[in-house]
Structure formats: structure tokens, C-alpha cells
Amino acid sequence: MTLATSPSIASQFWRNAIPAITAMLVSGIYIITDGIFLGQYVGHQALAAVNFAYPVLSVFFGLGLMLGMGSGSLISIARGKQQLQAAGHALYATLVLTLLLALLGAIAVYWGAEFIITAQGADSATTALALQYINIFAIAAIAPMASIALPMLIRNDDSPNVATLIMMFGALFNVALNYLLIVKLELGLEGAAFATVAANTAVIAFSLLYYRSALAQVKPMRTRPSALVKLMGQSLVLGSSLLVMHLYSGFIIALHNRLFIEHGGVTAVSAFAIVGYLMTLYYLFAQGLSEGMQPLVSFFYGAARVSDKRKVVALASKLVIVSGLVWYGLLNLSPQYGISLFNTETEVINSASDGLLFHLSGMFLDGMIALMAVYYMATQQGLKALAVSISNMLVQLPFLWILPKLFGILGVWLALPLSNLLLIMILAPMFYRDLYGSKPSGSFKVAHCR
Question: What is the DSSP annotation of 355-396?
Fold first, then answer.
């Protein structure tokens, strides 16, 4: 592929972004259909159990994104420099690293799950439900990780449509299994978890078939142990901000769950879960925009095409902000409609309506903060990307400490948008300087060893 021959920056962006957005929205079916089936056929306590489980499972999701984005950046940068052998070495290192991290992640989840759930304030019945859900993922830890990472790597191999088709198949397979296992066989949370893991496995199988086909431009290539370790380290550094972001997300959700239990009980946690499901569509759209931006930014960075890199980032930033504002408006036009997809109890609907109004008011800022982290990963500024993610976590803590004491459950809903506003005021000037100022320091070369 030679991006220089493409007709325009916008068309290059949309060529990558549309499949990425489609893939992310399709992957949202995994999450949202679980919520709809569980909320309608098992009850609002099942929604609360899944929300208590999320901080544990965020380990797997974060590791998958770290591998996909970190290694994907290395692959695209190497391709931009016309170094296909280096790209093959990076791909091979990713496959090895995925196996190692899956084992470590499974051990961490197995030993820490119950403690994390009970620390959020879950009662014994809800804890038991959450553990039923988690245990399936712990047994098949590589499935959620690799099913996230591999399509992202395929997208960085200039095959965004293939990656989207693979994810679409996985999502549709998940819906069918959800219907069979939850509605027909009445297997509850275990059925929902098994459906997701089975769909993840199908995504992995088709992704590996892609790399054995003639479609793949980059093939896994073995390299010396020292170079392998170096490449794994580079991938971890570049993608670590996404891991931290997901761990932060899990930690913040755990804090919210604890505070909602204290101020509103299980019903409030269920409402928070529904708000999260509805919020997911925007975050996945914004993530799709960021993922569509990343291969181009990495390629232009590797090819020293500074002006083109800036144009791509500017376009993606505008779309992230506008889409967040539009989705917020749509959700609040008739909040009962979206909420009732998951649960029809009056108390749950009332609480979730407050969440849509207050909690999501700074949603577009959160999307922009995530885009900044992806930009720094794409341009080999892993430490800055990590700093953005850590700041996103730390800035929320004082708001979650103070606001609930002053305003009760309303304070819990308001913590996220107010912290986002403060953080964007700090990060935006730095991001602008890095994008339009002098060339950032501290970059490193992709390891390339025969």
C-alpha cells in the first residue's frame, strides 16, 4: 500500500475509520445484547452483578487493547518506513506476548475476583452471580484478549474491511448464542459468559486464518530472543496507556458501584449499569475513530509527513466531539425509551434517567481524552500516553470523595463530567503544542533484527 497515491487525507481517513467504527459498534453488540437479555430475562440484579464483574474483567479487555494498539503502532510505523521484515518481527512478538499475558491475567483474575467484588459492597447473592460470570472468562482468558488484539493488528496490515467482517461474524454469533443459552436454555449469567467466550474464539480462529492467507502483507517472523524481548517491551510501553485506561475504568466503576450501593442500593447499581450500556455506543464509536486514525498517524509519522498527520488528527478530533454531543442529546430526548430496553421497573428507569442527564454531560470530553492517548501511542510517545491515562484516573478521585458527601447520589453522577472538564483544560494546551509545535523528543526505533 502507498498512502501517497490516495486521493485525499479525508478519504484515507474514512477508508480506515469506517471499518474501525463498524467493527467497534458491532463489538458493542457483545456488550449490549448481554445487558438486554440479562435485564429482560434474568432481572436487574443480573445487571448489577455484571457491573460488579466489570472491574475484574477489565484486566482482559485492557491487555487486549494494549497488545492491539501498541503492536499495531509498531507494525504501521515499520510499514511506513518500508520495513516489512521489522513489521513481521513485531507481529511475531505480539503473538508470543499474548500467550504470556493470558496466563498471568488468568491467575490474577482467579485469585482476586471475589475480593474485588465484595470490596464494592456486593451482597452474597450478587457476589455469587458475578463469580459465575467471571469464572468462564478466567478459564478461557486468551479468548477476550486475543479477540480484541488480532482484528486491530489486521487493520494495521491495511485490511480494515477483513477485520470488520471477522468482528461482525463474532458479534452475530454472540447474539445467536445469547438467545439460545439465556432465553431457551435459561443458563443466566453463565450462559451469557459462555456465549461471549465462544464468539471470541471464533474471531481468533478467523484472524489466524487471515495470517495464513495471501491477503496478509505482514507475516509473523521469528527473531533473536534479545530482539523479541525488546519488541515486546516496546509494545508494552506504547500500549500501556490503554491498559491503564481500562484498569482505571474498572477501578472507577468499582468506586461508583460502592458509592451507589451506599446511596441507592442494588437498584442504583443496576441503573448505573444501564447508563454504561447506553454510553458504550458512543465510546465504541469514538474508539473506532481513534483506531481509524492510528494507522494513518503512525504511517505518516514513520514517513515524516507532518502536515498529513496533523490533518488526520484534526478531522478525528472534530468527529469525536460532535458525535459525543449528538449522542448525549439523543439519549436525553426520551431517556425512558433507551432504558426500557434493559429493564422496565419504574425505580430503575427514574435513577437511570438522572444518570443519562448528569453522568454523560461530559462524555464528549472523555472521548477526546482517549483520542489524545491514542495519538501519543501512534507517534511513539508511550510515556505521554500513559501520563494521560493516569491523569484521567487520578483527577476523578477527589470529585468522588467530596461530591457524594455534599450531594448524595447526585454527587456520584456528577463526578465524571466535572473531572473531565478539569482534565481537558490541563491537557488541551499540551496536546496542541505537541501536534503543531516542534518535533517531540524521546521517540525510539522499531527493533529490526535478522
Answer: IIIIITTTHHHHHHHHHHHHHHHHTT-HHHHHHHHHHHHHTH
